[in-house]
Write a structure and sequence with these properties.
Layout: H1 43-58, E1 61-73, E2 79-91, E3 95-102, E4 105-111, E5 115-120, E6 125-130, H2 135-146, E7 170-179, E8 182-191, E9 194-201, E10 208-215, E11 223-231, E12 250-251
Parallel strand pairs: 6-12
Antiparallel strand pairs: 1-2, 1-11, 2-3, 3-4, 4-5, 5-6, 7-8, 8-9, 9-10, 10-11
């Protein structure tokens, strides 16, 4: 049995987690006098992403959860909303446990620095692969080798050379707003056919708290919205990062992507 057929992807890759949408400058009702060109990519918006990434790389033990609401556009243009949840415990440099919940069921990923295990509780299917790497390396290798997207994957890329900090057509500071009880700085970016918005907690803990992604390649402009919750003082034990197959679990093959 091919494990890849049983993996449910959470939605847009969460670099997908952290980059967002263009400047929404309103157009004047009448033609305005010619003005000097303004840089559409505000340096402070790019710096905010760098600062966020640097801070994320300092986090050693944490738990993070997200609820994603996405839109599917029917042929007649009607939009349908769907949602998924993900929860993740992390102990850097090389331990991770993630659980993805969708209407199709739950999926789990457990990694202890040596072995990555994938498990579907409802069917009791599991697979494993030896991967001696860091969490960041795990994210990259699962995607490249098996086509598996780790939830909130880009949280591990920000602050590294792989962070997507170029190719922006526009970047702006859109002011401040609250996400839950946290006052956040709101930034918006445009990159190719996607608009991205991210709300970053203000102050000494610049955590991403909300993400909105808009697909401009579709005339209906479908969006996904993610709200991210953080626990920087988790109480989990290291034993949770080692997978022990439960009674009756069936091992299935983890098949690498075909290469040409």
């Amino acid at each position: 049995m091919n494990w890849n057929r049983h993996i449910a992807r959470l939605g847009a890759p969460l670099l997908a987690a952290l980059v967002a949408a263009p400047g929404w400058a309103q157009q004047p009702a009448t033609a305005a006098p010619a003005q000097a060109a303004v840089n559409p990519v505000a340096p402070e918006a790019i710096q905010a992403l760098k600062t966020m990434g640097t801070y994320l790389q300092t986090l050693q033990r944490f738990s993070v959860t997200t609820r994603v609401t996405g839109e599917r556009v029917l042929a007649d243009g009607q939009k349908l909303q769907h949602s998924a949840k993900a929860a993740m415990d992390v102990a850097r440099p090389n331990r991770l446990r993630a659980r993805i919940t969708t209407p199709r069921g739950d999926r789990e990923l457990i990694f202890n620095g040596k072995v990555a295990a994938l498990y579907t509780p409802a069917q009791k299917y599991y697979s494993s692969a030896e991967l001696d790497d860091t969490v960041t390396g795990l994210v990259r290798r699962l995607q490249q080798r098996y086509g598996i997207e780790v939830p909130l994957a880009d949280l591990f890329l920000w602050g590294t050379p792989d962070a997507p900090l170029d190719g922006f057509e526009s970047a702006m500071n859109a002011g401040q707003d609250f996400v839950g009880d946290d006052l956040c700085d709101h930034y918006a970016f445009r990159q190719g056919s996607l608009d991205w918005q991210v709300w970053i907690k203000a102050g000494s803990q610049p955590l991403p708290r909300r993400l909105v992604i808009t697909n401009r390649a579709d005339d209906a402009r479908p969006q996904s919205v993610s709200v991210i919750e953080w626990n920087l003082k988790p109480a989990f034990k290291d034993a949770i990062f080692t997978f022990v197959p439960p009674p009756g679990a069936q091992r299935v093959e983890l098949v690498p992507l075909k290469t040409r």
